[in-house]
Protein backbone atom coordinates (compact mmCIF):
# COMPACT_ATOMS: atom_id res chain seq x y z
CA UNK A 1 0.00 0.00 0.00
CA UNK A 2 1.05 3.57 -0.64
CA UNK A 3 0.98 6.25 2.05
CA UNK A 4 -0.96 9.26 0.82
CA UNK A 5 -0.46 12.66 2.44
CA UNK A 6 -3.79 14.35 3.02
CA UNK A 7 -5.50 17.10 4.96
CA UNK A 8 -7.99 15.96 7.56
CA UNK A 9 -11.07 17.84 8.67
CA UNK A 10 -8.96 19.58 11.32
CA UNK A 11 -6.40 20.64 8.68
CA UNK A 12 -3.74 18.42 10.30
CA UNK A 13 -1.54 16.74 7.74
CA UNK A 14 -2.08 12.99 7.90
CA UNK A 15 -0.95 10.00 5.90
CA UNK A 16 -3.44 7.23 5.11
CA UNK A 17 -2.70 4.02 3.21
CA UNK A 18 -4.13 3.74 -0.30
CA UNK A 19 -5.70 0.25 -0.51
CA UNK A 20 -4.84 -2.04 -3.39
CA UNK A 21 -7.35 -1.71 -6.22
CA UNK A 22 -7.80 2.05 -5.75
CA UNK A 23 -6.27 5.16 -7.22
CA UNK A 24 -6.03 8.78 -6.19
CA UNK A 25 -8.45 10.93 -8.16
CA UNK A 26 -6.39 13.56 -10.04
CA UNK A 27 -6.63 16.92 -8.31
CA UNK A 28 -8.01 18.61 -11.43
CA UNK A 29 -11.03 16.29 -11.21
CA UNK A 30 -11.81 17.28 -7.61
CA UNK A 31 -13.20 20.39 -5.97
CA UNK A 32 -10.49 20.99 -3.38
CA UNK A 33 -11.81 24.28 -2.01
CA UNK A 34 -12.54 24.70 1.72
CA UNK A 35 -15.78 23.32 3.13
CA UNK A 36 -17.25 26.80 3.50
CA UNK A 37 -16.91 27.49 -0.24
CA UNK A 38 -18.50 24.16 -1.11
CA UNK A 39 -21.37 24.91 1.25
CA UNK A 40 -22.08 28.13 -0.63
CA UNK A 41 -22.46 26.11 -3.84
CA UNK A 42 -24.68 23.54 -2.13
CA UNK A 43 -26.94 26.26 -0.79
CA UNK A 44 -27.10 28.08 -4.15
CA UNK A 45 -27.25 25.48 -6.94
CA UNK A 46 -27.74 26.68 -10.54
CA UNK A 47 -31.01 26.07 -12.41
CA UNK A 48 -31.54 22.56 -13.74
CA UNK A 49 -30.36 22.42 -17.34
CA UNK A 50 -29.36 18.77 -17.80
CA UNK A 51 -29.70 15.24 -16.47
CA UNK A 52 -26.52 15.00 -14.40
CA UNK A 53 -28.25 15.87 -11.13
CA UNK A 54 -27.51 14.29 -7.76
CA UNK A 55 -30.65 14.76 -5.68
CA UNK A 56 -30.93 14.65 -1.89
CA UNK A 57 -33.73 15.60 0.48
CA UNK A 58 -33.57 16.90 4.04
CA UNK A 59 -36.82 18.31 5.37
CA UNK A 60 -35.29 21.42 6.97
CA UNK A 61 -32.50 22.02 4.46
CA UNK A 62 -28.77 21.49 4.18
CA UNK A 63 -27.80 24.02 6.86
CA UNK A 64 -29.67 22.02 9.53
CA UNK A 65 -28.35 18.60 8.55
CA UNK A 66 -26.24 16.67 11.03
CA UNK A 67 -22.54 17.42 10.50
CA UNK A 68 -21.71 13.85 9.52
CA UNK A 69 -24.32 13.88 6.74
CA UNK A 70 -23.12 17.30 5.58
CA UNK A 71 -19.67 15.74 5.20
CA UNK A 72 -21.19 12.96 3.12
CA UNK A 73 -22.90 15.41 0.78
CA UNK A 74 -19.74 17.51 0.47
CA UNK A 75 -17.84 14.40 -0.55
CA UNK A 76 -20.31 13.84 -3.41
CA UNK A 77 -19.72 17.44 -4.45
CA UNK A 78 -15.92 17.18 -4.28
CA UNK A 79 -15.86 13.99 -6.29
CA UNK A 80 -18.33 14.66 -9.08
CA UNK A 81 -18.97 18.34 -9.80
CA UNK A 82 -15.86 18.65 -11.97
CA UNK A 83 -17.40 15.88 -14.10
CA UNK A 84 -20.53 17.91 -14.75
CA UNK A 85 -22.76 16.75 -11.88
CA UNK A 86 -24.76 19.21 -9.77
CA UNK A 87 -25.54 18.26 -6.18
CA UNK A 88 -29.01 19.48 -5.13
CA UNK A 89 -30.38 19.22 -1.59
CA UNK A 90 -34.14 19.66 -1.67
CA UNK A 91 -36.27 20.49 1.36
CA UNK A 92 -39.66 21.76 2.52
CA UNK A 93 -38.45 25.00 4.12
CA UNK A 94 -40.44 28.12 3.13
CA UNK A 95 -38.26 30.53 1.19
CA UNK A 96 -35.48 28.01 0.66
CA UNK A 97 -33.87 27.78 -2.80
CA UNK A 98 -33.96 24.02 -2.28
CA UNK A 99 -37.69 23.90 -1.55
CA UNK A 100 -39.12 21.00 -3.49
CA UNK A 101 -41.86 23.31 -4.78
CA UNK A 102 -39.19 25.09 -6.85
CA UNK A 103 -38.64 21.91 -8.85
CA UNK A 104 -42.02 20.18 -9.09
CA UNK A 105 -45.65 21.16 -8.53
CA UNK A 106 -46.42 19.95 -5.02
CA UNK A 107 -50.14 20.61 -5.56
CA UNK A 108 -50.34 18.22 -8.53
CA UNK A 109 -52.26 15.13 -7.40
CA UNK A 110 -50.57 13.08 -10.12
CA UNK A 111 -47.25 13.77 -8.40
CA UNK A 112 -47.99 13.89 -4.67
CA UNK A 113 -50.64 12.58 -2.28
CA UNK A 114 -52.77 14.98 -0.31
CA UNK A 115 -50.85 14.32 2.90
CA UNK A 116 -47.64 15.56 1.27
CA UNK A 117 -49.27 18.64 -0.23
CA UNK A 118 -50.89 19.61 3.07
CA UNK A 119 -47.95 18.55 5.22
CA UNK A 120 -50.12 16.18 7.24
CA UNK A 121 -47.99 13.02 7.15
CA UNK A 122 -48.05 11.40 10.58
CA UNK A 123 -46.25 8.66 12.47
CA UNK A 124 -42.67 8.28 13.73
CA UNK A 125 -41.25 8.05 10.20
CA UNK A 126 -43.18 10.85 8.53
CA UNK A 127 -39.99 12.62 7.45
CA UNK A 128 -38.59 9.46 5.88
CA UNK A 129 -41.82 8.98 3.93
CA UNK A 130 -41.79 12.63 2.88
CA UNK A 131 -38.36 11.93 1.45
CA UNK A 132 -39.68 8.80 -0.30
CA UNK A 133 -42.37 10.82 -2.02
CA UNK A 134 -39.99 13.28 -3.72
CA UNK A 135 -37.66 10.72 -5.34
CA UNK A 136 -39.64 9.54 -8.32
CA UNK A 137 -41.17 12.95 -9.19
CA UNK A 138 -37.66 14.47 -9.34
CA UNK A 139 -36.17 11.64 -11.36
CA UNK A 140 -39.16 11.40 -13.70
CA UNK A 141 -38.96 15.08 -14.55
CA UNK A 142 -35.23 15.78 -14.48
CA UNK A 143 -33.34 12.50 -14.35
CA UNK A 144 -30.05 11.83 -12.62
CA UNK A 145 -29.34 10.15 -9.29
CA UNK A 146 -31.35 10.21 -6.08
CA UNK A 147 -29.50 9.22 -2.90
CA UNK A 148 -30.25 9.31 0.80
CA UNK A 149 -28.11 11.75 2.77
CA UNK A 150 -26.71 8.71 4.57
CA UNK A 151 -25.44 7.20 1.33
CA UNK A 152 -21.64 7.46 1.11
CA UNK A 153 -20.52 7.18 -2.51
CA UNK A 154 -17.25 5.32 -3.11
CA UNK A 155 -17.16 4.05 -6.70
CA UNK A 156 -16.90 5.81 -10.02
CA UNK A 157 -20.44 7.10 -10.44
CA UNK A 158 -19.62 9.06 -13.57
CA UNK A 159 -17.90 6.09 -15.17
CA UNK A 160 -20.82 3.74 -14.48
CA UNK A 161 -23.35 6.36 -15.64
CA UNK A 162 -21.59 6.81 -18.97
CA UNK A 163 -21.13 3.07 -19.43
CA UNK A 164 -24.84 2.41 -18.92
CA UNK A 165 -27.61 5.01 -18.77
CA UNK A 166 -25.85 7.71 -20.77
CA UNK A 167 -24.50 5.26 -23.34
CA UNK A 168 -26.83 5.05 -26.37
CA UNK A 169 -25.44 1.60 -27.17
CA UNK A 170 -26.20 0.26 -23.68
CA UNK A 171 -29.55 -1.44 -22.92
CA UNK A 172 -29.45 -0.35 -19.27
CA UNK A 173 -31.88 2.34 -18.16
CA UNK A 174 -31.78 2.28 -14.36
CA UNK A 175 -29.12 1.83 -11.68
CA UNK A 176 -29.72 0.66 -8.13
CA UNK A 177 -28.69 -2.04 -5.68
CA UNK A 178 -30.25 -5.49 -5.49
CA UNK A 179 -29.41 -8.72 -3.64
CA UNK A 180 -28.03 -11.61 -5.65
CA UNK A 181 -29.87 -14.92 -5.64
CA UNK A 182 -33.21 -13.46 -4.56
CA UNK A 183 -36.49 -15.16 -5.45
CA UNK A 184 -38.03 -11.89 -6.60
CA UNK A 185 -36.86 -8.62 -8.13
CA UNK A 186 -36.14 -5.65 -5.92
CA UNK A 187 -34.11 -2.47 -5.69
CA UNK A 188 -32.85 -0.19 -2.93
CA UNK A 189 -34.53 3.20 -2.89
CA UNK A 190 -31.55 4.84 -1.15
CA UNK A 191 -29.79 4.95 -4.54
CA UNK A 192 -31.77 5.33 -7.77
CA UNK A 193 -30.57 6.55 -11.16
CA UNK A 194 -32.31 7.00 -14.52
CA UNK A 195 -33.07 9.43 -17.31
CA UNK A 196 -36.35 11.39 -17.21
CA UNK A 197 -39.65 9.56 -17.79
CA UNK A 198 -38.29 6.13 -17.01
CA UNK A 199 -40.95 3.49 -17.67
CA UNK A 200 -40.33 1.47 -14.51
CA UNK A 201 -40.21 4.46 -12.19
CA UNK A 202 -43.33 5.98 -13.77
CA UNK A 203 -45.35 2.85 -13.01
CA UNK A 204 -43.85 2.58 -9.53
CA UNK A 205 -44.89 6.13 -8.78
CA UNK A 206 -48.47 5.57 -10.00
CA UNK A 207 -48.78 2.53 -7.74
CA UNK A 208 -47.30 4.33 -4.75
CA UNK A 209 -49.77 7.20 -5.14
CA UNK A 210 -52.61 4.70 -5.38
CA UNK A 211 -51.63 3.23 -2.01
CA UNK A 212 -51.55 6.71 -0.46
CA UNK A 213 -55.00 7.59 -1.87
CA UNK A 214 -56.83 4.69 -0.18
CA UNK A 215 -59.47 5.46 2.47
CA UNK A 216 -59.76 9.14 1.68
CA UNK A 217 -56.06 9.86 1.40
CA UNK A 218 -53.83 8.32 4.02
CA UNK A 219 -51.42 10.18 6.30
CA UNK A 220 -49.20 7.20 7.18
CA UNK A 221 -47.91 4.03 5.54
CA UNK A 222 -49.12 1.83 8.40
CA UNK A 223 -50.99 -1.16 6.98
CA UNK A 224 -50.06 -0.47 3.34
CA UNK A 225 -48.42 -3.90 3.09
CA UNK A 226 -51.90 -5.46 3.09
CA UNK A 227 -53.24 -3.45 0.15
CA UNK A 228 -54.68 -5.84 -2.49
CA UNK A 229 -52.63 -4.09 -5.19
CA UNK A 230 -49.56 -5.65 -3.55
CA UNK A 231 -51.02 -9.13 -3.40
CA UNK A 232 -48.44 -11.82 -4.11
CA UNK A 233 -45.43 -9.67 -3.26
CA UNK A 234 -43.52 -11.25 -0.34
CA UNK A 235 -43.09 -9.14 2.75
CA UNK A 236 -39.66 -7.88 3.73
CA UNK A 237 -37.49 -9.18 6.52
CA UNK A 238 -38.89 -12.28 8.16
CA UNK A 239 -36.14 -13.03 10.65
CA UNK A 240 -35.99 -9.85 12.74
CA UNK A 241 -37.49 -9.46 16.21
CA UNK A 242 -37.82 -6.46 18.54
CA UNK A 243 -37.65 -6.31 22.31
CA UNK A 244 -38.93 -2.92 23.45
CA UNK A 245 -37.53 -1.00 26.42
CA UNK A 246 -40.48 -2.15 28.54
CA UNK A 247 -39.76 -5.80 27.69
CA UNK A 248 -42.49 -6.15 25.08
CA UNK A 249 -41.48 -8.73 22.47
CA UNK A 250 -42.48 -8.30 18.84
CA UNK A 251 -42.11 -11.43 16.74
CA UNK A 252 -40.76 -11.79 13.21
CA UNK A 253 -44.16 -11.79 11.46
CA UNK A 254 -45.19 -8.45 12.95
CA UNK A 255 -41.73 -6.97 12.43
CA UNK A 256 -41.90 -8.06 8.81
CA UNK A 257 -45.19 -6.20 8.37
CA UNK A 258 -43.74 -3.14 10.10
CA UNK A 259 -40.60 -3.24 7.94
CA UNK A 260 -42.63 -3.57 4.76
CA UNK A 261 -44.78 -0.58 5.70
CA UNK A 262 -41.64 1.38 6.52
CA UNK A 263 -40.01 0.59 3.16
CA UNK A 264 -43.28 0.61 1.21
CA UNK A 265 -41.58 2.33 -1.72
CA UNK A 266 -39.33 -0.71 -2.11
CA UNK A 267 -42.35 -3.02 -1.90
CA UNK A 268 -44.00 -1.02 -4.67
CA UNK A 269 -40.92 -1.36 -6.86
CA UNK A 270 -40.88 -5.14 -6.33
CA UNK A 271 -44.56 -5.29 -7.34
CA UNK A 272 -43.98 -3.39 -10.59
CA UNK A 273 -40.81 -5.34 -11.40
CA UNK A 274 -42.82 -8.56 -11.11
CA UNK A 275 -45.88 -7.28 -13.00
CA UNK A 276 -46.95 -8.34 -16.49
CA UNK A 277 -49.60 -5.94 -17.82
CA UNK A 278 -50.22 -6.77 -21.46
CA UNK A 279 -52.78 -4.01 -21.80
CA UNK A 280 -50.16 -1.34 -21.19
CA UNK A 281 -47.38 -3.32 -22.87
CA UNK A 282 -45.45 -3.85 -19.63
CA UNK A 283 -43.41 -6.95 -18.82
CA UNK A 284 -41.61 -6.29 -15.56
CA UNK A 285 -39.42 -9.43 -15.47
CA UNK A 286 -38.29 -8.85 -19.04
CA UNK A 287 -37.56 -5.20 -18.27
CA UNK A 288 -35.41 -6.16 -15.27
CA UNK A 289 -33.50 -8.71 -17.32
CA UNK A 290 -32.80 -6.26 -20.12
CA UNK A 291 -32.66 -2.78 -18.60
CA UNK A 292 -31.81 -2.96 -14.87
CA UNK A 293 -28.11 -2.62 -14.01
CA UNK A 294 -28.23 -4.04 -10.50
CA UNK A 295 -25.25 -3.58 -8.18
CA UNK A 296 -24.89 -6.31 -5.58
CA UNK A 297 -26.59 -5.09 -2.42
CA UNK A 298 -24.37 -6.53 0.32
CA UNK A 299 -20.97 -6.23 -1.30
CA UNK A 300 -21.88 -2.98 -2.98
CA UNK A 301 -23.46 -0.98 -0.17
CA UNK A 302 -23.52 -2.87 3.16
CA UNK A 303 -20.04 -4.33 3.52
CA UNK A 304 -19.19 -2.56 6.79
CA UNK A 305 -22.36 -4.01 8.32
CA UNK A 306 -21.67 -7.48 6.98
CA UNK A 307 -18.10 -7.47 8.31
CA UNK A 308 -19.31 -6.45 11.79
CA UNK A 309 -22.35 -8.77 11.86
CA UNK A 310 -24.63 -5.69 11.78
CA UNK A 311 -23.33 -4.66 15.19
CA UNK A 312 -23.36 -0.87 15.09
CA UNK A 313 -21.48 -0.45 18.35
CA UNK A 314 -18.71 -2.75 17.15
CA UNK A 315 -18.41 -0.85 13.85
CA UNK A 316 -18.26 2.46 15.71
CA UNK A 317 -15.68 1.23 18.23
CA UNK A 318 -13.41 -0.25 15.56
CA UNK A 319 -13.54 2.77 13.29
CA UNK A 320 -12.90 5.08 16.26
CA UNK A 321 -9.54 3.41 16.90
CA UNK A 322 -6.37 5.23 15.89
CA UNK A 323 -4.10 3.75 13.26
CA UNK A 324 -0.67 2.59 14.52
CA UNK A 325 1.90 5.33 14.83
CA UNK A 326 4.94 5.24 12.54
CA UNK A 327 7.03 2.20 13.44
CA UNK A 328 4.27 0.64 15.56
CA UNK A 329 2.65 -2.71 14.84
CA UNK A 330 -1.07 -3.36 14.95
CA UNK A 331 -2.29 -4.08 18.49
CA UNK A 332 -2.14 -7.61 19.82
CA UNK A 333 -5.90 -7.68 20.36
CA UNK A 334 -6.19 -7.52 16.55
CA UNK A 335 -8.79 -4.78 16.76
CA UNK A 336 -6.68 -2.51 14.56
CA UNK A 337 -6.34 -5.34 12.07
CA UNK A 338 -10.12 -5.78 12.00
CA UNK A 339 -10.62 -2.04 11.53
CA UNK A 340 -8.03 -1.93 8.75
CA UNK A 341 -9.62 -4.86 6.93
CA UNK A 342 -13.03 -3.18 7.13
CA UNK A 343 -11.77 0.11 5.70
CA UNK A 344 -9.70 -1.56 2.98
CA UNK A 345 -12.56 -3.82 1.95
CA UNK A 346 -15.16 -1.06 1.91
CA UNK A 347 -13.02 1.36 -0.09
CA UNK A 348 -11.71 -1.12 -2.64
CA UNK A 349 -14.71 -3.45 -3.10
CA UNK A 350 -17.86 -1.39 -2.52
CA UNK A 351 -19.59 1.10 -4.78
CA UNK A 352 -21.07 2.87 -1.75
CA UNK A 353 -21.95 2.49 1.89
CA UNK A 354 -25.41 3.19 3.28
CA UNK A 355 -25.57 4.35 6.89
CA UNK A 356 -28.66 2.87 8.50
CA UNK A 357 -31.20 4.77 10.61
CA UNK A 358 -34.98 4.69 11.08
CA UNK A 359 -36.83 1.51 11.98
CA UNK A 360 -33.61 -0.51 12.15
CA UNK A 361 -32.86 1.28 15.44
CA UNK A 362 -35.79 -0.53 17.05
CA UNK A 363 -34.18 -3.81 16.03
CA UNK A 364 -30.48 -3.11 16.60
CA UNK A 365 -30.69 -0.21 19.10
CA UNK A 366 -27.69 1.56 17.60
CA UNK A 367 -26.03 1.71 14.18
CA UNK A 368 -22.80 3.26 12.98
CA UNK A 369 -24.85 6.13 11.56
CA UNK A 370 -26.75 6.78 14.79
CA UNK A 371 -23.52 6.75 16.80
CA UNK A 372 -21.81 9.15 14.40
CA UNK A 373 -24.86 11.38 14.74
CA UNK A 374 -24.87 11.21 18.54
CA UNK A 375 -21.09 11.73 18.82
CA UNK A 376 -20.43 14.75 16.56
CA UNK A 377 -17.03 14.72 14.91
CA UNK A 378 -16.32 11.07 15.75
CA UNK A 379 -16.24 10.18 12.04
CA UNK A 380 -13.35 12.57 11.29
CA UNK A 381 -10.99 12.40 14.29
CA UNK A 382 -7.55 12.67 12.66
CA UNK A 383 -5.63 9.42 12.49
CA UNK A 384 -8.63 7.14 13.09
CA UNK A 385 -9.96 4.46 10.80
CA UNK A 386 -13.16 6.46 10.41
CA UNK A 387 -11.18 9.45 9.15
CA UNK A 388 -9.28 7.14 6.80
CA UNK A 389 -12.60 5.88 5.40
CA UNK A 390 -13.90 9.44 5.06
CA UNK A 391 -10.75 10.57 3.27
CA UNK A 392 -10.84 7.67 0.84
CA UNK A 393 -14.44 8.36 -0.08
CA UNK A 394 -13.70 12.00 -0.89
CA UNK A 395 -10.39 11.71 -2.71
CA UNK A 396 -9.88 8.16 -4.01
CA UNK A 397 -11.73 5.83 -6.36
CA UNK A 398 -11.79 2.07 -7.00
CA UNK A 399 -10.04 1.08 -10.23
CA UNK A 400 -13.11 -0.64 -11.72
CA UNK A 401 -16.86 -0.15 -11.85
CA UNK A 402 -19.01 -2.85 -10.21
CA UNK A 403 -20.22 -5.84 -12.15
CA UNK A 404 -23.91 -6.27 -12.77
CA UNK A 405 -25.77 -8.83 -10.69
CA UNK A 406 -26.78 -11.74 -12.92
CA UNK A 407 -30.56 -11.55 -12.67
CA UNK A 408 -32.54 -14.70 -13.47
CA UNK A 409 -35.77 -14.58 -15.45
CA UNK A 410 -38.40 -15.02 -12.76
CA UNK A 411 -42.11 -15.73 -13.19
CA UNK A 412 -44.38 -12.71 -12.70
CA UNK A 413 -45.89 -12.06 -9.30
CA UNK A 414 -48.97 -10.53 -10.92
CA UNK A 415 -50.57 -10.65 -14.36
CA UNK A 416 -53.08 -7.89 -15.02
CA UNK A 417 -53.48 -4.15 -14.74
CA UNK A 418 -51.19 -2.14 -12.51
CA UNK A 419 -54.00 -0.61 -10.43
CA UNK A 420 -56.36 -3.55 -10.40
CA UNK A 421 -56.70 -6.37 -7.87
CA UNK A 422 -56.58 -9.48 -10.03
CA UNK A 423 -57.92 -11.94 -7.46
Automatic annotation (TrEMBL):
Q: Name one GO molecular function term.
A: glycosyltransferase activity
What Gene3D superfamilies does the database record attribute to this sequence?
3.90.550.20
* Species of provenance: Penicillium alfredii
Against Pfam families, the record matches this protein to: Caps_synth
Q: What is this protein called?
A: Capsule polysaccharide biosynthesis protein
Amino acid sequence: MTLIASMSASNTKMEYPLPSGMHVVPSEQLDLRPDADIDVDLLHPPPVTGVKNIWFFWHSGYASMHPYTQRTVRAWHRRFTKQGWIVRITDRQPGSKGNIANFVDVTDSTLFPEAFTKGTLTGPYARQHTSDLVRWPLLLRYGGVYADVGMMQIGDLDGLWHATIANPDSPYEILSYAPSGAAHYSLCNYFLAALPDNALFARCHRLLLALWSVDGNRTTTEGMHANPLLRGVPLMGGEFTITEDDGTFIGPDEVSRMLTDYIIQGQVATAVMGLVDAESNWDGPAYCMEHFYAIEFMEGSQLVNELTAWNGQKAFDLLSLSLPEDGEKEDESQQQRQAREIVEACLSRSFGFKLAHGLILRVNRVTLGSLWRDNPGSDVVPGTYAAWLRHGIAYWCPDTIPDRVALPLLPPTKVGRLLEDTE
